[in-house]
Specification:
Length: about 325
C-alpha cells in the first residue's frame, strides 16, 4: 500500500528540505510506492533545441489509449505529487505529469523564469498518434505555460484545462510563503527558491497568456477550489467571464477544495478532468426515417389510365 503523505504548507517545505538533505531530486517519491507497470518515470529532450533533459512520470500502456492527458505542474514543480492519480487511472486513459525545467529531475539546474521558453521546452509532450486526442492541463503556475503550449496548435488538441490557475495575484498563504522565501532565499533548497523567483516574475508575462486565450479555438475549462488560499478564485472567475475568446470558457468551482486538488482523493481530480473530455456523439450515425405517406380514410386513391403491357410476342402479358 502506498504510504500516506503529510498535507499542508509545512509538509510542502519539509519535503524540499528533506530531499535536499538526502540528495534526492524527488520529493516524497510516491511513484516508488507503485509498480512500474502503473507509474513509470521517463526522460525526454526539451523542445526548441535547448539541450535540456526533462523528467516526467507517466502511465505505461500496452497500446496507446484514445485519450492522452498531459499535466504541466505548478511551482515548485513536482510530478511525484500526482503519482496516486496516475496509479488510479483507467486503462483507456494515458497521463503524463512533468517536472518543469529547473525543478526536481529536469534540467537546467538554474531557474527558467521565461514562461514562453518553458512552453517551448515542454512542447514534445504534445506529440500524439493518429486516432489519439490530447487534453492539456496546466496546474497553478503551469496554467499560463499550458496556455502558451495550446497556442502552438498541437495536432488533435481537444481542450485546455486551467486547474487552480495562478494569475499574477497571490492568496494570503502564498503571499506569506513568497515573502518569507525572499527573505531567506540563500538558506532554502533550490526548488523552493526557484518557485519564489518564478512567481515574482509572472505578472508581467500574463499579457501574452491572455492573447493566446483569445486565439484558441478549442474548449477551455477553468477549474478552481472555492477554498483556495494560494491562488484567489476571484481571479480565475474574472478570467473566465471577461476574456473574449472564440469559444466560451467553462468555469467550475469545486466546493470545499483547496489549491492542491491532486493531493486529495484521486477520484476528485479524475472526476474534474473527465468532465473536460468531450463526449462522442453517435448522432451522425442515425439514418433519419422518411415520413410515411398515408391516404385519408374514405378518400379513394386516384389512378391514371392503365396502359396494357406488351409481351414479347406482341400479346398482353398476364
Amino acid at each position: 500500500m502506498p504510504s500516506k503523505r503529510p498535507h499542508g504548507v509545512l509538509a510542502l517545505g519539509w519535503a524540499a528540505i528533506e530531499s535536499s538533505i538526502t540528495g534526492r531530486t524527488e520529493h516524497r517519491p510516491t511513484s516508488q510506492d507503485y509498480p512500474d507497470s502503473l507509474v513509470h518515470r521517463i526522460q525526454f529532450d526539451a523542445g526548441g533545441g535547448l539541450g535540456w533533459k526533462i523528467s516526467a512520470i507517466t502511465t505505461p500502456r500496452d497500446k496507446p489509449a484514445p485519450w492522452k492527458i498531459v499535466v504541466i505542474t505548478g511551482a515548485p514543480s513536482w510530478a511525484e505529487y500526482w503519482a496516486p492519480v496516475l496509479a488510479a487511472l483507467p486503462l483507456d486513459r494515458e497521463l503524463t505529469v512533468v517536472d518543469r525545467p529547473g525543478f526536481a529531475g529536469s534540467e537546467p539546474h538554474d531557474v527558467v523564469p521565461d514562461i514562453r521558453q518553458q512552453a517551448l521546452a515542454l512542447s514534445p509532450l504534445m506529440t500524439t498518434i493518429p486516432g489519439q486526442r490530447l487534453l492539456l492541463v496546466g496546474q497553478s503556475y503551469g496554467a499560463a505555460i499550458a496556455t502558451l503550449m495550446a497556442d502552438m496548435r498541437p495536432k488533435r488538441l481537444a481542450g485546455l484545462v486551467m486547474l487552480s490557475s495562478l494569475l499574477g495575484e497571490l492568496g494570503p498563504t502564498a503571499r506569506w510563503l513568497v515573502d518569507l522565501g525572499e527573505r531567506v532565499a540563500g538558506m532554502i533548497p533550490r526548488d523552493l527558491r526557484h518557485a519564489v523567483m518564478e512567481v515574482r516574475g509572472q505578472r508581467e508575462q500574463l499579457t501574452q497568456v491572455r492573447a493566446a486565450l483569445r486565439s484558441l479555438n478549442v474548449p477551455v475549462h477553468v477549474i478552481h477550489g472555492d477554498q483556495d488560499d494560494f491562488a484567489p478564485i476571484e481571479m480565475a472567475r474574472q478570467l473566465a467571464a471577461e476574456t473574449p475568446t472564440r469559444r466560451p470558457i467553462r468555469f467550475a468551482a469545486v466546493p470545499g477544495a483547496n489549491h492542491f486538488l491532486n493531493d486529495g482523493p484521486a477520484e476528485l481530480v479524475m472526476e474534474q478532468l473527465e468532465a473536460c473530455l468531450p463526449k462522442a456523439s453517435a448522432a451522425w450515425l442515425r439514418i433519419p426515417r422518411l415520413p410515411q405517406l398515408t391516404w385519408p380514410k374514405g378518400a379513394p386513391m386516384k389512378r391514371g389510365p392503365v396502359k396494357p403491357a406488351v409481351g414479347v410476342a406482341g400479346g398482353a402479358s398476364a
